[in-house]
Amino acid sequence: MPGSLPPEAPLIAETGGLNAMVVDSTALPEQAVRDILASAFQSAGQRCSALRCLYVQEDVAPVVREMLFGAMEELRLGNPWELSTDVGPVIDDEARARIVAHVDKARAEGRVLKELPVPNTGNFVGPTVIAVCGIEDLGDEIFGPVLHLATYRAADLDRVIERVNDTGYGLTFGLHTRIDDRVQQVVERIRVGNTYVNRNQIGAVVGSQPFGGEGLSGTGPKAGGPHYVPRFTARTVPGLAAEETQAAPEDAVEAALKGLSLADHALSTRDMPGPTGESNRLSLHPRGRVLCLGPGLGAARRQAAEAEAAGSAPLMVCPGGDVAGRLAPDALERLSPLDAVLWWGDAAMARSYRQALARRDGPLVPLIVEEGVMQGLFTERHLCIDTTASGGNAALLVAGGAG
User: Fold this and answer.
1) pLDDT at 402 (0 to 100)
2) Contacts with 192 (C-beta within 8 Å, 6 or more apart), sequence order
3) Which residues of 175-193 are buried (b: 16+ CB within 10 A; e: fewer)?
4) Which of 161, 254, 276, 340 sits at 20 to 30 Å (Cα–Cα) from 371?
5) Is 137 exposed, middle or buried (0-12, 13-18, 19+ CB in 10 A)?
6) What's the pTM?
């Protein structure tokens, strides 16, 4: 029944993405092309983690493009039941029509660089490469075997990462490079749930590569990770009594949120199990700006302490708080920037707060109604590196001994 779901019920979702890969001039082109093909065209591009926009450093773009187009010629379209098939059909005719309309528009604009023919029957879309200036040209996710190709200058790498972040999505990201400092440069800036270095960016393995995004691409914690299952458990919500007080001024709350100081750094990092020759690391990062609504100053102070322990920046809005008064539920529709809300009061107000948050545009903002539930106060990011792809794994050589 509508409205019957208790307000403390968690929303656990993964919501798609506009996923990018960067290939720099030091990458091994054979390995890069292999992983581009798998990331963009495997499962006919019908994976939420699939590669949608490829950035190739302009110095090596002609070589990579020639090799990519040649490798595409070897792809076989057909019945997925046959082992010889590389690319099957898309899910239905509606999906095919949407993808074909996107390709047709690009073709009319002279931006289709490569396109494979399709079988005479079935909902097939030929693997296609379309030229773009950057990921900002995509707009929506095209859920099929369509790869958008852009080039970039080496000096503009940080700008490329900014544009990927600016989409608001944050599911997967791929990087091909042989420079360790460049890996660090990108990992410190990119805001996605799963980053893959020198390998494809699809097919996360449970327990090894916890999967799920941030921003517009998920709610966290990540599926297959150590913090995932506890989110499905139920707790008793105390429902602290709220005292009558005046309304908190919305403009003062927004100004205070904008004035909070944030630091996006790893709170902790843990190695995950995985195959030999692959490094898998899961790190926790602060969620960001957190509204602590109490009720009451005592509860708000405990909420602020939890937020600070998770590396986030709290703002107490309650009688005697940073901004005095009770925040009206409809204010949560508009307040920005905002990353999480804590309320430990009565269920009726919790429902109003959650409904207001659900009406927001942009990333989903969690409402945390339980004390001691830290999972909602941080985001998880996973880094997977194929340590053999760049020419060898020194750790394996050491483990093998000199003889």
Assistant:
1) 40
2) 17, 19, 164, 170, 171, 172, 173, 213, 214, 217, 381
3) bbbeeeebbebbbeebbbb
4) 254
5) middle
6) 0.91
Mean pLDDT of 92-104: 97
* Cα-to-chain-centroid distance, residue 198: 19
What H or E segment, with its residue span, contains residue 349? helix 347-358
pLDDT at 396 over 50: no
Distance CA 94, CA 140 (A): 16
Catalytic positions, written as ranges: 14, 48
pLDDT digit string (tens) for 108-165?
999 999 999 999 899 999 999 999 999 999 988 999 999 999 999 999 999 999 999 9
Q: What residues have CB less than 8 Å from 7, skipping those under 6 apart?
A: 347, 350, 351, 353, 354, 367, 369
In angstroms, the CA 387 to CA 394 distance is: 9
What strands, in cross-sheet order, belong to the sheet with 128-131? 112-115, 128-131, 146-152, 53-57, 20-23, 172-176, 194-197, 378-386, 278-286, 268-271
Q: What are 219's two structure tokens?
A: 């709610």
pLDDT reading at 235 higher than 90: no
